[in-house]
C-alpha cells in the first residue's frame, strides 16, 4: 500500500510541484494551505509523513510541528521542513519542535523524493 504524505504550504503552485514529484515516486498525497488546515487532517487517517513550509498564515510550520507532536497518533510522524528559511536559529526552532529534517527552497524534486524515502518509514 502506498504511503501517504501531507504537504503543507500556503503556495498552491509549490504544493503542485511537490505533489507531482511525490506521486511520481508512488506516494499518495494530501494537501493543506496552512498549519491549522493540516492539523484538522490529523483525524486518525493514516499519514506517514508531512512536508511543511515554515512561513504561512494562521499557523506557521513550527507551530504546526509542535501541535502535531501533541496528537498521540501522530507523535512519531516524521516532518520535513521545506522552506526559504536557512538561518541556524530557525533550524534549531524546527528541530526543538520535533522536525526531522530541513530542506531549503528552491529544491530539486529528486532531492525531495530522496529525503522523503529516507524519512518515510
From TrEMBL:
Lineage: superkingdom: Bacteria
SUPFAM superfamilies referenced in this protein's UniProt entry, alphabetically: CheY-like
Keyword hit for Phosphoprotein: yes
InterPro entries named among the record's database cross-references: Bact_response_regulator (IPR050595), CheY-like_superfamily (IPR011006), Sig_transdc_resp-reg_receiver (IPR001789)
GO biological-process terms attached to the record: phosphorelay signal transduction system
Keywords: Phosphoprotein
Domain spans labelled Response regulatory: 4-120
Gene3D superfamilies named in the record: 3.40.50.2300
Modified residues (4-aspartylphosphate): 53
Protein name: Response regulator
Amino acid at each position: 500500500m502506498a504511503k501517504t504524505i501531507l504537504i503543507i504550504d500556503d503556495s498552491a503552485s509549490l504544493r503542485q510541484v511537490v505533489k507531482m514529484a511525490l506521486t511520481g515516486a508512488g506516494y499518495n498525497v494530501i494537501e493543506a494551505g496552512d498549519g491549522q488546515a493540516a492539523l484538522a487532517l490529523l483525524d486518525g487517517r493514516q499519514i506517514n509523513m508531512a512536508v511543511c513550509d515554515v512561513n504561512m498564515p494562521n499557523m506557521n510550520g513550527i507551530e504546526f510541528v509542535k501541535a502535531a507532536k501533541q496528537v498521540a497518533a501522530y507523535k512519531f510522524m516524521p516532518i520535513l521542513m521545506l522552506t526559504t528559511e536557512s538561518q541556524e536559529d530557525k533550524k534549531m526552532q524546527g528541530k526543538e519542535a520535533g522536525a526531522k529534517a530541513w530542506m531549503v527552497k528552491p529544491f530539486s524534486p529528486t532531492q525531495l523524493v530522496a529525503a522523503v524515502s529516507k524519512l518515510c518509514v
